[in-house]
From TrEMBL:
UniProt xrefs under Pfam families: Aminotran_5 (PF00266)
Cofactor: pyridoxal 5'-phosphate
PANTHER family (UniProt xref): CYSTEINE DESULFURASE ISCS 2-RELATED, CYSTEINE DESULFURYLASE FAMILY MEMBER
InterPro entries associated with the record: Aminotrans_V_dom (IPR000192), Cysteine_dSase (IPR016454), PyrdxlP-dep_Trfase (IPR015424), PyrdxlP-dep_Trfase_major (IPR015421), PyrdxlP-dep_Trfase_small (IPR015422)
Keyword Protein biosynthesis: no
Gene3D superfamilies listed in its UniProt record: 1.10.260.50, Aspartate Aminotransferase, domain 1, Type I PLP-dependent aspartate aminotransferase-like (Major domain)
Organism this protein belongs to: Anaerococcus kampingae
Protein known as: Cysteine desulfurase family protein
Keywords: Pyridoxal phosphate
Span of domain Aminotransferase class V: 2-352
Lineage of the species this protein comes from: Bacteria, Bacillati, Bacillota, Tissierellia, Tissierellales
Length: 369
C-alpha cells in the first residue's frame, strides 16, 4: 500500500498507540473524579497540556482540549460578533461556522492564484470596523502557507483589540506554531494530522480573551470551553504523537520527495497544472490538476493498485472545490485535481511506482474521453 492521503488523516504512531492502550488499561478513571485514581488520569492531562504549551510557547492555562479542530474552529468563531474578516480558502469547518455565527457581516479577502491573501486588500478591509479575523495557516487542499506574522502585524497595528484566530490544523508539528512569534490570539489544531488519535483536538486561547469564549456544548465544562468527560488516554496519545512528529525532524526529507514527485510529473505526463506553489507551501501537500480527466475516476484507478490519494479535501466529498474556484483555476483543469499528501513513510521508490500507474491511468482515461 502507498498512502498519499496524509492531509486527510495520518496513521497513528506506534508510540502513540501504545501510550493510548496503556492509559486505557491502567489510567481509565474519570479525570474529574476526586479520588486518587481519577487524579492519576488528570495528571496525564496536565502532563500533556504542559508539553503542548511548551511546543507553542504558551502558558499551560491557555491550552484547551476539544473533540477536534472542527470543534475548536466553531468555538472560536461562534464566541464573537460584529464584523469578521476571513479568506475564501478556509476549511469547511470555518466557512460553515461563519454562516451560522452571530456576526453581522463576514468579509472575504481576495487572494492570488496560489491562495495567498492579498495584504493590500487586508489593509483596506480593516477599515470596516472589523472585530475578528480567522485565517487558515496552511491550506488543507493546496498547501499554501500564509504569512501569519505579517498578517498579525497589519491587523494589530491597525487595532490591537481585533482578535486573530488561526486554523493550524495542517501546521502543528510541521512548521513554526509559536503563538508569540506568530502574534495570534487563538489557534486550532488536531491530533490526527500529526499521527495522533482521531476526534481529539485543541484550542489555544490567549489569557486575556478566555472569558469571552463561549462553549458550543453545555454540560460540565470540563475543559471550560468544551463539555464532556475528558479523554485522558487520547489527550496523552496526542502529546506523544506530537513529540514523535517533532523529533522525527522529517521536513527536509518531505520537501525532497515533494520536489522529486513534481519532477516525475513534469517528465512523465502532459497537460497538467501544479496548483501548489513551490515557495511558501507545505512540503506535505502537492495538489496537481490534470486536463481531460475526472479526478474521482483517476482516484479509483489508483486505488486498484493500492495507491490512496484525494480528489481535493476529504471534507468536500467529491463536490466542486470551493478552494479551486477561489484561486480561479482554469476550467479545463477543474475536474482533474488530485491532492497527494506525504508522510515520512513514503519513499522515492513508492513515488516511482505511483508515477507509472498515474501515467498509465491518465492515458486510459483520456483515450475513453
Amino acid at each position: 500500500m502507498i498512502y498519499l492521503d496524509n492531509a486527510a488523516t495520518t496513521k497513528m504512531y506506534d508510540e502513540a498507540i501504545k501510550a493510548y492502550v496503556k492509559a486505557q488499561e491502567e489510567t481509565f478513571a474519570n479525570p474529574s473524579a476526586l479520588h486518587s485514581f481519577g487524579m492519576e488520569a488528570e495528571n496525564l492531562i496536565k502532563k500533556s497540556r504542559k508539553y503542548i504549551a511548551s511546543v507553542i510557547s504558551s502558558a499551560e492555562s491557555e491550552v484547551f482540549f476539544t473533540k477536534s479542530a472542527s470543534e475548536s474552529n466553531n468555538i472560536a468563531i461562534k464566541s464573537f460578533d460584529g464584523v469578521a474578516l476571513t479568506s475564501k480558502i478556509e476549511h469547511s469547518s470555518v466557512y460553515e461556522a461563519f454562516k451560522k455565527s452571530d456576526f453581522d457581516k463576514v468579509i472575504y479577502l481576495d487572494n492570488d492564484k496560489y491562495g495567498f491573501i492579498d495584504l493590500n486588500d487586508l489593509k483596506k478591509q480593516l477599515k470596516n470596523d472589523i472585530s475578528f479575523v480567522s485565517i487558515i495557516y496552511v491550506n488543507n487542499e493546496i498547501g499554501c502557507i500564509q504569512d501569519i506574522r505579517k498578517i498579525s502585524e497589519i491587523i494589530k497595528s491597525y487595532n490591537k483589540n481585533i482578535i486573530l484566530h488561526v486554523d493550524a490544523t495542517q501546521a502543528l508539528g510541521k512548521i513554526n506554531c509559536d503563538v508569540k512569534s506568530l502574534g495570534v490570539d487563538m489557534m486550532s489544531f488536531s491530533a490526527h494530522k500529526f499521527h495522533g488519535p482521531k476526534q481529539m483536538g485543541g484550542l489555544y486561547i490567549k489569557k486575556d480573551i478566555t472569558a469571552k469564549v463561549k462553549p458550543i456544548l453545555d454540560g460540565g465544562y470540563q475543559e471550560i470551553i468544551s463539555s464532556g468527560t475528558s479523554d485522558a488516554p487520547s489527550i496523552y496519545a496526542m502529546a506523544i504523537a506530537l513529540r514523535k512528529q517533532i523529533e522525527a525532524n522529517e521536513y527536509e526529507y518531505i520537501k525532497e520527495i515533494n520536489l522529486y514527485f513534481r519532477s516525475l510529473i513534469k517528465d512523465s505526463i502532459d497537460d497538467y497544472y501544479i496548483i501548489s506553489p513551490e515557495e511558501n507551501c507545505s512540503a506535505y501537500i502537492l495538489d496537481v490538476a490534470f486536463a481531460n480527466i475526472k479526478a474521482e475516476v483517476l482516484l479509483h484507478m489508483l486505488e486498484e493498485e493500492e495507491i490512496y490519494v484525494s480528489s481535493g479535501s476529504a471534507c468536500s466529498k467529491g463536490d466542486d472545490s470551493r478552494i479551486l474556484s477561489a484561486i480561479d483555476l482554469d476550467e479545463k483543469y477543474m475536474d482533474g485535481a488530485i491532492r497527494f499528501s506525504f508522510s515520512g513513510e513514503i519513499s522515492k521508490e513508492d513515488l516511482d511506482f505511483t508515477i507509472d500507474i498515474l501515467k498509465r491511468s491518465i492515458e486510459l482515461i483520456r483515450m475513453v474521453i
